[in-house]
Amino acid sequence: VSRLVCDTHCLTRMHANVVYGTLVACIVGLVLLFRVIGTGVTKAANATFSDFQKTYLIAYLLVMMADWLQGPYFYSLYVDYGYDSGQIALLFVCGFLSAMLSGPVLGGLADQYGSKKLSIICCITYSVSCFLQSYPNYPVLMFARVCGGVSTALIFSSFEAWMISEHNRRLFEPALLSQTFALQTFGNGIVAACSGVVANAAAEYNTDGSGRNSARPFQLAIAFLTAAGAYMAFTWPENQPKGAAGSSESSSGESKDFMSSFKAVLSKKQIWMLGLMQSFYESSMYMFVFLWTHSVDPPGTPDAERAPIGMIFSCFMVAVMLGSSIFRYLLEEQKWNIQDVTRVTFLIAASCMACGIFTEVPDVLFLAFVGFELATGIYFPTIGTLRGAIIPEENRASVMGWFRVPLNLLVVAFLLGVRTVTSWPTLYMVPTALLAVSLYLQSQLKAALAEEKKPDETLDGA
User: Measuring CA to CA, how many Å separate 122 from each of 49, 93, 233?
Assistant: First the structure.
């Protein structure tokens, strides 16, 4: 037993070197790829498209900065307020349920009244959520999580819906859409890495020796959300999909409610296959967020040998940035088909996640997790490109809202059932299985698209 404990301590002690070495390797990989593909904006077809990318990405990344500022401090804040793990879990479940129930309805409103309006409302509801986090009253915090869930649903529907609709309205080439998604993922990685430093400085700053204040990152997030809302109000034109209520090209006066978008999901197997593929992958991603800290920094590790969690998170974000650059390299330089990129991405992600089933060695798991994050960096622009090509314009935001319903259901079920599992490696079977199903659905989606026999530059690759 003593020998086993010693070996475990040695592995943990070596972990920091593995982290720093992997971080350097990812940065070197980014530099090398930049020499080949450039930053992305400079390779845009024209100045007008570059300006369009900047207009969208500035607003999106301001909102994501606010989102990332909060992430590391939710649990810490609730612990500081004196709530136990059961109460905290219920708060998290409330947020996921709120996002699940509100997503299709809010998406329908975005399709009907315009994505810009709903994106600005997102900034308002998220600001309310952040403001209420400063109050330790449990019902108030529960309402804050409801507002946070509504805001999350809007972030992952109305923003993208505005960008794709505006991209199409301005008649930019469909192939350029993947470039915007790649830059979005890359920028999100930079913002996430920076937000950790900024949030830590905000939480630890004090002049009276009172110690850490976990509510400050939430207060700081309000400033970024306010800036994003104001920026969109003055720079984003409103757009409505063809056929939406109030649109000049509306062919009927019927309201685009959330049930019509649900029928749109079921009307074509390509759409619901894409939705399930996205839900299974992204639910496994949320489960991974819950699992990884325990795996690389096991309970009971002496303080002097604790894993560098902050550096590990930074390494994950650099891996995401590297993944988004690999996506661009494969499409722009190697001319890969988007479906081939998707298949390889899911295969890498499933293989890396499966490592959690077969080993508990922190160093090995860390390297596998970096592989998963790299695959995730490829995944986001890939799935965004597929959504842009497959989802019908008139129901885009609401269909994207429906896509997140099974995602949130799976995450809630996982969080509620995790207490009944005593073996940590067993928990990794769930996200691994979901990723394997995503891989299968990808092959079915490819076959379904081939059946249509409608050549599409975005889907078939050039």
Answer: 25, 20, 12
Check: CB of residue 381 under 8 Å from CB of residue 187: no
10 Å Cβ neighbour count for 436? 19
Whole-number pLDDT of residue 299: 65
CA distance 198 to 254: 48
Q: List all residues 6 or more positions away from 318 whose beta carbon is below 8 Å from its beta carbon.
A: 23, 26, 27, 30, 189, 193
Q: Token match 């972030």: residue?
A: 155
Quick one: which of 55, 40, 61, 45 has its CA closest to 171? 45
pTM over 0.90: no
In the numeric block, the tokens 């007008």 are attached to: 48
| Cα three-residue angle 257-262-265, rounded to 5 degrees | 135
CA separation for the pair 373, 365 (Å, rounded): 12
CA distance 331 to 162: 24
Give the amino acid at 442: Q
Cα–Cα dist 413/418, whole Å: 8
Q: What count of other Cβ atoms lies within 10 Å of the Cβ of residue 234? A: 7
Q: Residue 193: which of 30, 17, 357, 433 has the closest Cα? A: 30
Q: For residue 101, how far is the Cα from the chain centroid?
A: 19
What is the rounded distance in angstroms from the CA atom of residue 408 to the CA atom of residue 173? Answer: 34
Q: What are the 10-residue block averages of pLDDT along the chain, 462 residues in total?
A: 43 61 80 67 66 94 93 80 81 88 83 89 96 93 94 90 90 87 89 83 70 84 96 88 47 49 71 90 90 74 66 85 90 86 95 91 88 94 90 79 86 80 84 94 87 56 44
Q: Which two tokens stand for residue 426?
A: 């067993």
